[in-house]
């Protein structure tokens, strides 16, 4: 029989062992209870939910959200991702936790297209980003800056309308996105470079349009290498190779623009354009300094996002009106009453055109230019709706799903501008404060060009609707309204239209 103190020692050690084991499991249970991840699909081993997304991720994620809820978690390769699909969920991330989600995750698009995140779109939130944003707002994208280049918008829009008028006289169909890209690139070129980018519409401007679309499409693809970094070198989808080739084309174009701009500096003494102002900040010893790479990267942002997102919204709006002639008729009636038919529409007319502005809002709702907001990433762990969100979790806000949510919008598949004319929706604006309608995102990383985008869409769309009747060419048959996914939501089939003049002939040449 073992001595009493030996038995006591055995019992004591066993008790200690049980105590620590019990405490470990209790803490684990508490930790798991406290760190409950949002619901979501299980996905596959290694690749996670990546194969579930398909070719239209915004649609798939909207369907999954109906099953798993407004805050949904997906394991994407080795990365965590959370998706917000309702206004309240978007508000929680983009307003309440805005600062925690103020950075972008690393990705191939930022590396290979945006000069390794040296631009304004993908740069980390910090001094360099703030300087790029400040300069852009002060001299191009802010309210005062937009007023300063209003004459440029009118001039370039006049050029485009006259080209369209000539096509209408010849009964030739116009390819709408080509016309819009040509006009917008020249508007932006005049502000940035002090000159038009394209003197005539032709192969050069069409190539530019193709480059813009390719960039926005490739940057929007869910790249396997972004979510499983250890195999990124394999480039399984061939995306990164294409990005590198496209980057060389863009870099050559931007280098040429900057060299030609430097050669004409003597012509702009006392009248600096935006590129002059940027170059003045490349050797600033008293504060944050920009590099030439930062300048190129910012120009890339402005020329691509500035042309593609606005032009896609205008194209969708025109297509919806061609499919819904009663909407086009009401817009014409309002414009005839406010503007008449003896002159072109002017920007100062826009505040009086409430139905036109409702059409723009309805297009922002149903066809947001960015269906999934640009991804953000959590700086530290946080909690949303009682769910644990780990550090370094990628965030996507499904703006497309919010705009088509039947719990938010009555008959969301209908194109009905009247929904914005009265009732609770009348005060909703697409400027980032009303989370039912956030086509430009929200919070501190809201699209820097949101104000410019709204101005361009309202003015250009209003002018095109006021100036012409819009008809589907007989050979087209039923209008194709399919989407093509990318960073910007394109029409799968570019819109072609037959035009018929509505104004006095003298209005088109003034």
UniProtKB/TrEMBL annotation:
InterPro entries in alphabetical order: Cyt_P450 (IPR001128), Cyt_P450_CS (IPR017972), Cyt_P450_E_grp-I (IPR002401), Cyt_P450_sf (IPR036396)
Transmembrane segments: 6-26
Reactions accelerated catalytically: a 3',5'-unsubstituted flavanone + 2 reduced [NADPH--hemoprotein reductase] + 2 O2 = a 3',5'-dihydroxyflavanone + 2 oxidized [NADPH--hemoprotein reductase] + 2 H2O + 2 H(+)
Cofactor(s) the protein needs: heme
Keywords, comma-separated and alphabetical: Heme, Iron, Membrane, Metal-binding, Monooxygenase, NADP, Oxidoreductase, Transmembrane, Transmembrane helix
Any one GO MF annotation of this record: heme binding
Record has Manganese as a keyword: no
EC number(s) recorded for this UniProt protein: 1.14.14.81
Pfam short name (any one): p450
PANTHER family, A to Z: CYTOCHROME P450 98A9 (PTHR47944), FLAVONOID 3'-MONOOXYGENASE (PTHR47944:SF18)
Role played: Catalyzes the 3'5'-hydroxylation of naringenin and eriodictyol to form 5,7,3,'4',5'-pentahydroxyflavanone and 3',5'-hydroxylation of dihydrokaempferol and dihydroquercetin to form dihydromyricetin.
Family: Belongs to the cytochrome P450 family.
Name of the protein in its database record: flavonoid 3',5'-hydroxylase
